[in-house]
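The instructor's notes for this session suggest beginning with a concrete chain rather than abstract definitions. Hand out the sequence below and ask the class to guess, before any prediction is shown, which regions might be ordered.
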Amino acid sequence: MTTQNQIDHPTSRPLALITGVGRTVGIGAGIARRLAASGWDIAFTYWTPYDERMTWGVEPGAADATETALIGYGAATAAIEADLTDPDTPARIFDEAERRLGEVTALVMCHCESVDSGLLDTTVESFDRHFAVNTRATWLLIREYGRRFRGVQGSGRIISLTSDHTVGNLPYGASKGALDRITLAAAHELAHLGVTANVINPGPVDTGWMSDEVRDAVLPRTPLGRLGTPQDTAHLVDFLCSPEGQWINAQLLMSNGGFA
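After discussion, reveal the predicted structure:
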């Protein structure tokens, strides 16, 4: 849906690259809308074959609908379908985002592989896929960002979404734990660029994957008695990407309503 005018004449707005924006109800899409409303252009990735494997299925026209919403906030957009199991994909994502919209100022990683399994029933194939998407791709995206960033000192932002759920969800939680360490290392290793790097744990956010049983189990464990929403996470990302959020760095932030 990106127009030729957007490709040839990038706007003066900073560019956020957001991964994992496959569905309009997801956290990634909520973050994209919030940043677009705050004055950012948005490049985002999605991967339809992942949604096809999941219980919620593919949302027809989700990428176009997301672009339409972002354009409504004045953002230039680029939707990029991207298979993050391929180690060459992160460089291609940056190539495409830069070609169509310019240099990336903020990298926000919402992508994931998440298939429930425990210690005894996780397959090697599933374990490797989780680490390829959640861990290796995160490292490669951050590495690509660090190699290319030429922005104003102090303007760069790296944000990853994580989870501490490991029981019955071993490969997901373990690979997300490794993602934490990689992202937090970037705050120090990319300090010479003036880039901040933080991790957000949004807690249980129902974006269509929760059963009634899961909702009933989660609600009593949250002091406010409600589930998290994509907007809750998006507001924190918006703050971290703003000039006012510059002093928050190398942190694992719990944005989960006190879930315990």
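Then share the key points. The chain is about 40% helix and 15% strand. Residues 138 and 179 are 7 Å apart (CA to CA).
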